[in-house]
Amino acid sequence: EDKVVQSPLSLVVHEGDTVTLNCSYEVTNFRSLLWYKQEKKAPTFLFMLTSSGIEKKSGRLSSILDKKELFSILNITATQTGDSAIYLCAVETGGSEKLVFGKGTKLTVNP
Amino acid sequence: DTEVTQTPKHLVMGMTNKKSLKCEQHMGHRAMYWYKQKAKKPPELMFVYSYEKLSINESVPSRFSPECPNSSLLNLHLHALQPEDSALYLCASSQDQEAGVRGNIQYFGAGTRLSVL
Known about the structure:
The complex is a heterodimer of chains A (111) and B (117).
Chain A (H helix, E strand, L loop, with lengths): L2 E5 L2 E5 L4 E8 L3 E9 L4 E7 L6 E3 L2 E6 L4 E6 L8 E9 L5 E3 L3 E6 L1
Parallel strand pairs in A: 2-11
Antiparallel strand pairs in A: 1-3, 3-8, 4-5, 4-9, 6-7, 7-8, 9-10, 9-11
Chain B lengths: L3 E4 L2 E4 L4 E8 L5 E7 L6 E7 L2 E5 L6 E7 L2 E7 L7 E8 L12 E2 L3 E5 L1
Parallel strand pairs in B: 2-11
Antiparallel strand pairs in B: 1-3, 3-8, 4-5, 4-9, 5-6, 7-8, 9-10, 9-11
């Protein structure tokens, strides 16, 4: 059975801290790994990773994939209160349109 | 533009009512999805339409009936729902899997918050 595991499930930090969110997976026929940010409603797309070792970066957020060890990390530097959200990791498996989601990491950034 | 529009934003219905959720995208995407999300849980896939044809039904009860009138629209018809069906219903769309694009980003709408009384 395909599985995506995120850790930690919950994290509380102060503004300015750097955080690392983890996502490990066991799936058949890996195609891509996606990170989403979910505040109150719609998950919003952050990154799609398909190749190992290539860092994707957007402002203070960055992410990298290790296909040998089957995990990805999402880094957020100089956190702000607006980064407070649930961060979802999902893996797309080849041959279907399905995304397998992890349970998410709830990040709280306190002022 | 990566917008997926869902209406209504909120819906309260009784167990004997019939209602519909609507989803629209104008990105030329050929795959559209319905997800159900309960509080503090990740989205759970319900249905997938690819090129306006139902390609995946995740054993969803028949009181949920999807419809794809054209490539831009996706409906979810609701009938005789139960209180446990109360949840956030998310629609998403993506480029077609068969397009040869490696990786397939799903873009989500803001969802419909459904309460069944």
